[in-house]
Design a protein that fits this description.
heterotrimer; A mainly alpha; B mainly alpha; C mainly alpha; A: mainly alpha; Four Helix Bundle (Hemerythrin (Met), subunit A); disordered C terminus; B: mainly alpha; 0% strand; globular
Amino acid sequence: MINWHTCFFLLFATITCAFAVAVVVSANVVRMAVCLIASLAAVSGLYFLAAADFVAAMQLMIYVGGTLVLLVFGVMLTARGPFVSMKITPANWLMAGLAGGALLILLLCAATSVDAWKTAAVAASAPAAEGGHTVAPIGMALLGIRVDALEQANPALRGGIAGYLLPFEIVSVHLLVVLVGAAHLARARRRRRPAEAVPDASRSA
Amino acid sequence: MIAEYLTTRFGLPEWLACGGVALVQCLILLGIMMFAAALFTWMERKVAGRIQDRLGPTRVGGRFGWLQSVADGVKLLAKEDLIPGEADGLLFRLAPYVSFCAAFCVYLALPFSNGWVAQHLNVGVFFIVAIAGLEVFGVILGGYSSASKWSLYGAMREAAQVVSYEVPLGLCVVIPVMVAGTLDLVAIGNMQRGWGVNWLVFHNPFLFITFFIYALCTLASTNRAPFDLAEAESELVAGFLTEYSGFRWSVFFMAEYGSMYAMSGLGAILFLGGWHGPIPLAEMLGLSYANHAVLGWLGDLLGAGNFLCKAFLGVAAMMWLRWTLPRLRIDQVMTTCLKYCVPLAAAMFVGTMLWTYALPGGLLPRSTPLGAVAEAPPWTAPRAARGERP
Amino acid sequence: MPLLNQPVSLSHYLLVGAILFACGIVCMATKRNAIGVLMGVELVLNGAAVNFVAFSAPFLRGDAELALGLDGHLMTLFVIVLAAAEAAVALAIALCYYNTHATIDVDQGDELRG
C-alpha cells in the first residue's frame, strides 16, 4: 500500500518530529529557531497532504514567514554573546522528560484507541492529490455563509453549522489591540536604547 | 498525468512513477534556474557597462563575451572556501542552501504556460508569496552565524526591510487576486486571454498604479539596488556576504537571481497577462486544443516563450534601476515602505474594490481573441466540470 | 508497529500531533531562555492545529460523516492568527524584560518571589 500520499506523509512526518525533538535537545537558541522553522514548514506539508491547502499556505505565510521571523528577530535583539546557551541541571531534564514522556504515552494511547480512526475511508491519494478546494468556502464561512453546509448529509449535524463572521471580527479587533499593545510594551524606555523597538513595531504591522 | 501513463503503460508502482516524474520536473526547473543565473550574470555586466559607460566583458572571449559566465563559474568553484573560526559552522554552511531552496521552491508553483506548472496549487499566489518570504531566513542565518558585526548589521537590515516590505507586497498581490476572484495562477493567467487590453494592469487605473508599487516592493524584497542595504559594500563591507566566498557565495547569488526571475514572473502573471501576449498570436495561428492536441501544445509552447520574455524584461528593468539609482539609507527605505507604499497600496485596494463594484464589466471592452476561443486543456478545468467528486 | 503497514489514516496524523505537543511541553519546561519557552508554546499550538486539520479531513477516517470539515480548517486558521498575535506580545514582553534585567534568562526574574 505504498502510494505517494504515504511516501510524502512519512517524509513530512519524519521531518516534523525529528526537528521538534531537535528543538528540545538543542542548547543554542539560534539552532532551536532553525529547527523550529524546518519543523513548522514540514507541518504545512502535512496540511497540504490532508487537503487543507489554504491552511497550509497560511501556515507558511503567517507562521513560518511571519511569526518565526519575529522570533529570530527577538533572538538577535536579546542575545548577549555571539552564541548564547543556557544550561539546566540534569535533575530538571529528568523531571521534564518524565512529565513529557508520560504525556506522550497518554496521547499515543488516545490516538490509537479508536478503530474508525485507523482505517482510511477511501484511497487517500485520490482527494489529496488534487488538494482541497477550500479557499472559496473558507472565505464565505468567514463572512458568515456556510456553503459546505449544503453538502452535509446528516441533517442533525447540519443544524450545528454556523458562520464565523463574529469570531473573524473579534480576531481582527484583537489583532489591532495586540499591535498597539506590543508597540507600547516594546517602546524604548531608556534614552540610551532608542532603536530597538522600531523594527518590532513594523513587524507587527 | 504522465505518472498515470507510466503506471498504466509500463506497470510501474505509483510511488515510483510519481517520484520519477517529480524528479524530472525538479531537474528541469533547476536547469532553468541555473541557466537564468548564468545568463543574468553576463547580462548584469553588459547592462552595467552600457549604462555607466564602462567596458563590459570584452576580453574573455566568445561573441559578446558570453564566456565570462563560464569563467565566473570556474573561478567560484575553484576558490578556497573559508569559514571564520568564530562562526557557527553548521548554520554557516546551511544558510546558502536555505536561501536557495526557498528561491527554488517558488518555481514549483509558478506556471510557465497554460497548465505548465510542476505542482498546480489552488492557492498558488499565496504559496509563492509565502515561500519567497522564507528566503530572508538564509540571509539572517548567514549574517548571524558569521560572527562578524558587518554580517550581523546586514542581516538585521535585511530582516527589517524584507519583513516590512512583505506588507505592501501582500497588499499589491491581493488586488489583482480580488479582481480575478481566484488564487489559482493558471486561472488568473488564462482570464487575461486575448489582446493586451485584457491584461489586469489595464483593468482600471488603480491596478495600473498597483503594478508600479508591486515592482518597487519586488525590488526591495529581492534585495536589489537601490534597496540592497543588506550588502551595502560602501558601509558594511559586503553585509551578510562578508564572510562568504567561493561556492557558498555563488549559491546565495543564484538564489538572488532565481528569486528576481520568479518575482518578475509572478508580476507578469498577475498584471501582464502571463502567457497571453499583447497580440493573441496563438489564436491567430489557430494553435488551440480545439483544433488538434499537437497544435494546442504548440500554442502553450508559444505562451511559455511569451511568459519567459516578460519575466526576462522584468529582470532587465531591475538591472536598469540598479545601475541608475543610488542606494537609499535604511531610514529612507523604511519611510518608503511604511509611509508611502502601505498607504498607497491600501488606497489602491479600496479604489479597485469600488471600481469593480461600480463598473463590474470594466471600462475598456473586453476584447475576445480571434476566431474560436482556445479550449483549456482538460487538466486545468475545475474538478466539478470533469464530473469528479467535489 | 502495525500502523506502519496501514495506509495513512487519522491515527498517523494524531501521532505526529502528539509528538509535537509533547516536545513543546518538554521544551517549555526545560528552556531558560524566554524565547526558547516561546518556541515550546509554538510547538504545542502546532500539535493542536495538526489534530484539527486531521480531524477535518473526511478521507482519513472510517466514519467520514463525523469529520469536522471546514470547521477544523477555520479553527486552525484562528490558531495560526492568534499564535502570531501571541508571539508579538510575548516578544514585546521579552524585549521589555531584557531592557530591565539585561538578560533573557527567565530564572533571573524572581523579584516577586516570597
